[in-house]
Amino acid sequence: MPLRRTGSRVVRARPEPVEEPDRLIAAIAASSDRDAFTRLFGHYAPRIKGYLLRMGCEAGLAEELAQEVMLTIWRKAHLFDASQASANAWIYAIARNARVDAFRRERVRASAVESPDVTVRDDSDARLWLASVEMRLPDALAELPADQAQAVKSAFLEGLSHNEIATKYELPIGTVKSRVRRALLALRRALERRR
Amino acid sequence: MTPRKHPSKATLSAFATGALAPGAAFVAAAHVRHCERCARDVRLLEAVGGALLDQCAPAPLQPDALQAVLTRLDGPPPPRETAGHEDVVDPRTAGPWRWAGPGLKRATIAGAPGPGECVYLLRGGRGAKVPRHGHRGPEQVLVLQGAFTADGVVYAAGDFVEADGRHQHGLEVVSDAECVCLVATRGRLRLHGAAGWLQPFIGL
Fold first, then answer.
1. What is the pTM for the complete model shown?
2. Of A22, A96, B82, B204, which one has the fewest beta carbons inside 10 Å?
3. Mind telling me how many Å the CA of A42 is from chain B's nearest CA?
């Protein structure tokens, strides 16, 4: 991961600008653009697989689900609404759902539920808010105290419950809960302060 | 429809991180879809998840993975085996409806629950009662239409109710229109990564 220096602080380089994956997803939606898909695949597929591995999927399942998530991105590109979510957040939600769904399938093999895809909200402020969130989150995360950052990452990237985090790091459950809560509050405050 | 009763912050966090049990997540997603307040919380949490995903250490896929996916792009979508978070519950398409007590009917939603869970629609007319009962595990209820009371509190369309394993409650339909609820329950079976968020409520 390249580093850049700001003042005396060394921080991680930002992820790609948010406009870029947005545009690629829009190109897929508008014209089934395989070139755009290939570029999205190059950036996201290995990260999705890395995320699934961290979430505890075994390697074969992580590979299979990463490919499924990319297929879902292709099929649902027309549902991506940049006023509702950044590309990162949208893809994250698809990857998370794919893992939950795989978990479901362990027992369930049949579905009786139809699945029309909906969700349209008119929320013109949301786009601006999300753009600012997307830009500021990496720095806001980097500014979290180490113990809080670890708690948040354990929750998001390892799928650990509060109890499991407590066991893993030999901490009281109350400490874990307050760290996660304080971390999310701090993130929210950091994001709103700089809005 | 503006819901007044919402999932706890812990439940929304568990939903956003994928730690909530699949059936509970199905019910939570149905609430979030119609609740601007919770949708905003979930958007923030998913933005955090998205930022962390983008910073994840890349794990190379198989050398032929891109080609394999490209050849599948125009193929038919795979048959659905499960109901995803984005699925919409329509009482008219669920079923079959079975007797669930005087004035009550229930229809299972097969694709939504995870191991050890049960997800179903429950409906009843004015005055229909579910007697006082407890749960061995947590229960999530979303009111889809109509209203019921439990412990003197009225729950109306859009409201989300969470009950823990120790809590005893009974409920009664109080709306003129039929009341329809989406319910997820879980027994004693524990799920990896899912139960802990709810354990403080269950008292395990």
1. 0.76
2. B204
3. 8
